[in-house]
DNA sequence: CGCCGGTTTGAAGGGCCTCAATCGGCGTGG
DNA sequence: CCACGCCGATTGAGGCCCTTCAAACCGGCG
């Protein structure tokens, strides 16, 4: 058994006792490879399984009636996938791999068991999930009320922060691993316009680009232009009851 | 003590034993009135309290750097307010009353206690919260990929469904209780354009209006035009472990 | 009666889209 | 080894959806 990504993730914010770490480890006993471009769950398909992303990068999205796609979320190692299957037997969103990935699937009954036996741990997981919810509302506000340039900048900052959290060596320069069409589907724009916004960010000396690699030249200004907030760095789980 | 709205709400989807109902009741022991227009929590303010909305209608929103507002969510009786305060000591969004409302505030420590002592109940609450998350992603997709007309229609359908769920007598005709500016701030549009979209929906015989009251004339077509899904009617909590 | 918040309507402008063509990198098959 | 095909990036021209600005209208309430 490899390292539990979820223990890593949660452990950043709250100390976990051995018993709790073991419980989380049981969620990651099975492994499944998802190749770049392949889909893990398809919208409307029946699915009562959850997953933890072990390695790679994925996304969840929906396809609308007119065929357009809206990317809901980018997924990184340690992220919990398809939590909505706790309430719906049919998946509300498609999950697909942006790069070769490994996921650890487990049944929702296992999560129920964990909630019953390790309530403190479950509480911590729920709390952390609220951070995801807030990031979702950040993006909602971005789509509703900010310019195309701001939305594109926001995606760059978000992906950089998530990559860095998993791999500390990532600095101002990184490879997003997204096509301009994917950035567009995440920001509600066309690939064409994403391209123009990237060029504009480049002309304003906010970023530099070379063959897929992006460098943030003036992070301060970029954050301001994007209306960006790093929600992961403000998390506080210190109020949790102490481990048993 | 009045009826627990939260028991009503959760009880729609899963049977609750007496012990569980009592535990929920304890969350609603204190009451606080919030007048129409008043704000319960302000963004960036320190707040470790949660609330359950007893009666009335509220909204949560953020104000962006340029002063524009994005409404994140409309709140109805039985809804859990400011769950994000489980992870953040400072509120990520403002909560204000759209009509005279009553809320029941309780500390997050009480929720932690409930999670520890009534894990099944807490699991049910978390599952139900996932439905909120999915509604949020529906709105995200709406903002990113649907027309102004669809977004406005979607708000009307959403509010009608929520009102009806609380008051069964609500039919195709109802009073949204929202200004056109509020609808605009929820859909990422200007009040002016919301007005034009309402007129257009009226001209197409999809809705009728008279002094604040809206009547849905062709719900089928409206749902299709709005890309709307009623996420509350598809909820399935039957897999929950049985009550103790 | 006169204010005030909300609604309604018009005209003009801009941000982003659509359509379309070119270009570059890379894997594949000849 | 090279030609081809394909996907993604890039760039241009034109158009539409929604915004901005402005003014008139309406109902309610002091």
UniProtKB/TrEMBL annotation, chains A, B:
Question: Which superkingdom heads the taxonomic lineage of this protein's source?
Answer: Bacteria
- Keyword tags: DNA-binding, Transcription, Transcription regulation
Stretches assigned to the HTH crp-type domain: 146-220
One Gene Ontology MF term:
DNA binding
Q: Does the keyword Cell wall biogenesis/degradation apply?
A: no
Q: Which Gene3D superfamilies match?
A: Jelly Rolls, Winged helix-like DNA-binding domain superfamily/Winged helix DNA-binding domain
This protein's species is: Sphingomonas dokdonensis
Give the gene that encodes this protein: aadR
| Official protein name in the record | Transcriptional activatory protein AadR
The keyword Ribonucleoprotein is assigned to this record: no
Q: Can you name a GO cellular component term?
A: cytosol
């Amino acid at each position: 058994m490899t390292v539990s990504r979820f223990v890593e993730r949660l452990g950043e914010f709250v100390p976990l006792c051995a018993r709790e770490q073991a419980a989380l480890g049981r969620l990651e006993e099975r492994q499944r490879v998802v190749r770049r471009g392949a889909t893990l769950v398809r919208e409307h398909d029946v699915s009562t399984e959850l997953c933890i992303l072990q390695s790679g990068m994925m996304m969840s999205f929906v396809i609308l009636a007119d065929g357009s796609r809206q990317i809901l979320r980018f997924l990184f190692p340690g992220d919990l996938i398809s939590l909505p299957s706790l309430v719906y037997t049919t998946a509300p969103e498609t999950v697909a791999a942006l790069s070769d990935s490994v996921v650890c699937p487990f049944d929702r009954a296992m999560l129920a068991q964990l909630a019953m036996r390790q309530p403190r741990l479950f509480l911590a997981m729920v709390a952390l999930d609220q951070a995801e919810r807030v990031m979702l509302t950040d993006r909602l506000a971005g789509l509703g009320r900010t310019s195309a340039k701001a939305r594109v900048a926001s995606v760059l900052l978000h992906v950089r922060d998530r990559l860095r959290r998993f791999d500390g060596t990532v600095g101002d320069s990184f490879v997003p691993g997204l096509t301009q069409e994917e950035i567009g589907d995440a920001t509600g724009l066309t690939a064409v316009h994403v391209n123009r916004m990237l060029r504009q960010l480049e002309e304003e000396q906010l970023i530099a680009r070379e063959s897929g690699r992006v460098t943030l030249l003036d992070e301060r200004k970029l954050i301001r232009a994007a209306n960006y907030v790093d929600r992961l760095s403000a998390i506080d789980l210190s109020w949790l009851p102490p481990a048993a």
